[in-house]
Amino acid sequence: MAFLLSQLGHRSASVFADLIASVDLTPPHAGILRAIASEPGRSQQALSGQLGLLPSRVVAYVDELEDRGYVERRRNPDDRRLHALYLTASGKKLVSKIGELGRQHERLMTAGLDTDQRDTLRRLLSAVAERQGLTPHVHPGYRILGRVKS
Questions:
Q1: Count of alpha carbons within 13 Å of 10, Cβ hemisphere only?
Q2: Rounded to whole angstroms, how far apart are CA atoms 95 and 35?
Q3: Per-residue model confidence as pLDDT tens for the chain (150 residues)
């Protein structure tokens, strides 16, 4: 069963990467945009902590997204050392598109299952993920982005 989960996880990640590439993003870009959308005004440091991503990588990804007009940094009025992150109008449209692609991804990955089967699968996978200590809505692959392998 663990091997099957590994196969499906790899397949799912590959399919999602292909879908998200259609809007010229990588999965980390999409995850960062979704995280900013879910909590506008969050600092880069807080985002780094939530995603388990090195702060320097967050800065690099946010730089890319800001250069493309999807994200803006604003000084935190309470602590001028911190940057609060917000989506621009273009960023909000892109997050909506990411949602559409996410729904398409789910349909592709659960093709052949009926609604009840999908609901059961979701509940079972959520229970397994919770038992494994996984953070909801955060891909564990973030933890290795930008780290030197020893």
A1: 5
A2: 10
A3: 999 999 999 999 999 999 999 999 999 999 999 999 999 999 988 998 888 888 888 899 999 999 999 999 998 777 777 889 999 999 999 999 999 999 999 999 999 999 999 999 999 999 999 999 988 888 777 665 544 444
| Boundaries of domain holding 139 | 2-144
In a domain, 150, yes or no: no
pTM of the model: 0.85
> Considering its fold, how many domains does the chain have in total?
1
